Amino acid sequence: MRVQIDFYSYFKDLTGCARAFAALPPGSTIADLLRHLYVRFPKLAPMQRATLIAVGVEYQKPDYMLQDGDEVALFPPVQGG
Prior knowledge:
Elements: E1 2-7, H1 11-15, E2 19-23, H2 30-40, E3 52-55, E4 58-59, E5 71-75
Parallel strand pairs: 1-5
Antiparallel strand pairs: 1-2, 3-4, 3-5
């Protein structure tokens, strides 16, 4: 299956792109996708405990099972002042 990944804020700088695509086996979870992304974009790995993940418009947990065509968004922690 193929999923789209959108990177927001300084995640774009860490990956060098605003959007990427990943081919994953059917039944893959967000955790599987993240492992794939940390190999492909090693600068993201240090952010793994603070990354916010949404599929479509809903925040999801790592055990969420992805579907073909899903749009996954990765956000850094929200900061305010």
